[in-house]
Task: structure prediction
Amino acid sequence: MERDILAEVNHPFIVKLHYAFQTEGKLYLILDFLRGGDLFTRLSKEKSHKMHREEICCPWKTLRQRTLPQTPVELWTCRRPLFPTLCQADGTEGWLLVMFTEEDVKFYLAELALALDHLHGLGIIYRDLKPENILLDEEGHIKITDFGLSKEAIDHDKRAYSFCGTIEYMAPEVVNRRGHTQSADWWSFGVLMFEMLTGSLPFQGKDRKETMALILKAKLGMPQFLSTEAQSLLRALFKRNPCNRLGAGIDGVEEIKRHPFFITIDWNKLYRKEIKPPFKPAVGRPEDTFHFDPEFTARTPTDSPGVPPSANAHHLFRGFSFVASSLVQEPSQQDPHKATVHPIVQQLHGNNIHFTDGYEIKEDIGVGSYSVCKRCVHKATDAEYAVKIIDKSKRDPSEEIEILLRYGQHPNIITLKDVYDDGKSVYLVMELMRGGELLDRILRQRCFSEREASDVLCTITKTMDYLHSQGVVHRDLKPSNILYMDESGNPESIRICDFGFAKQLRAENGLLMTPCYTANFVAPEVLKRQGYDAACDIWSLGILLYTMLAGFTPFANGPDDTPEDILARIGSGKYALSGGNWDSISDAAKVLGIEPRTSCVLSTWSTPSSASPVSALFDPLQQDVVSKMLHVDPHQRLTAVQVLKHPWVVNREYLSQNQLSRQDVHLVKGAMAATYFALNRTPQAPRLEPVLSSSLAQRRGMKRLTSTRL
Result:
């Protein structure tokens, strides 16, 4: 039965069956390994602290130490669940205080409701809903598991009569054995909600018999510290008449979705896993089990109990073997030399993974080290897109695909439309950027002002602030990766592109250790092979801002600069902030970082009056956005949030709209190309001489050292 159910279901919040097979005397189910552990174990590790036994007698003192409401009145009128669960941690003097907010509970219950609705739609009653059967994946989303007690082929007109489940979570109709339907799962859903919000079970006696009696007859004690919406939902779920229970009607789960408790949930985004979970488990190696309770992992593995075989038991398991459809390939299509197809492509297209079936490839747009970008046309709609074709033998595109799928809906991040994989190359279908590269447009624009530069910086920095808040660093934020969606030149049409070097931060200290960099837009610590984080992106933005304002790059004068000179300038962090456009740029945009600071006249302000309240905002400590974005020390560099709060950005409407002068476009781009070459060139491989030619070997050859045996 469990095998049949697992083979039938396919839902993001239900554990997936990959294989099922049998040997003589044993049956095997190969399921997802969810390294986040079970829900309660994970949350207790994240949101707990040690208590001593004497503190248990004085809970108000303990709560005050956790900066919670200071009086019993405040506690019981607070709209956040604060009731503690005390559970012995190690059998000694240590205890754990576990707390759950209503927002946390709302998220997990919403995902759970979608999973139960999927089962009910297939005529399945789950019948064993409890915290131990709710697991967390690596991102923090739930998956329900253990279908050993589930019942198939049950619709609204049929009932099951088995007495099964965990007593404390059983519905009254299961306890009295008068027959139950899928409505029983919604009672268990309410028990789980009550336990997560209060830390205790709603009906629990001193033994099994008393617990069943409480479930059948006891009045529910509703904690008044819960919000009115939470109390309303609990009362609607704890209806002893299953026909009156929320979720039991014709509308099913829609009744629960419409309840005010879930009013803030976007159910479509939730299903697509676009809502950030309350906790993201810190996972390590694939085999790590530290998120599971040691009580279980320390046990010796044993077989699950089974029904004693009958004389014709071999007939029962015919057809038991199973392979998930995503792992099946037609024999005629199998190629032993073919690379593995990306799993996301399998989810989107199944076996239909040929890009040319749906799109017609046109001319090149750009060529990179690991990929080529071409214009393409969708055959069915004639819509034009850009396709990035990545050679899988040179680079794994998984991280880029994952980031684009998660964050590509941001208005200033390029949108990933489709993904294909032919085994050798991955095809990323994206928006077609008709406005061209940011720097090209700026350098060719007749009139580009300081105010426009601030507008552009604000748009890009807001986007990077969003990515950094999600733990994503771009690491290749050069002008050719910042494009305009259309010809309007409006900063809102800017798109951040090419996440080929982007990473999602996973280390506890937030640092990335993989050296990758591009041209003029690389931080000094990357050159020195040090760890780096989101400060690298701010450095790149500083280079971009410098080029927009000055009309030339800070570390290369032209295409004839040698790589050694360029690298030396980048490593030193020295650049000019005087002469040319800099003499007319507001002090708020710069600081004379090489020479001693000198006073500058705010000659570029639209309201130049010395009495202007705006000019008073720019004290000497704030007149340094370029300098602090290009600071050699990443710890002293501005963050994205600090850049957005800088007066030069906040008060940009007062900045000058006078045209800034430009160097020749080809000269500027040549200088950048020279910088790219300096940083991307392959160092000359050292020539290895025979070992005996080394001076050390020659010295040892003159007097051979002998070993001493002790």
In short: The chain is about 30% helix and 10% strand. The radius of gyration is 32 Å. The first helix runs from residue 2 to 8.
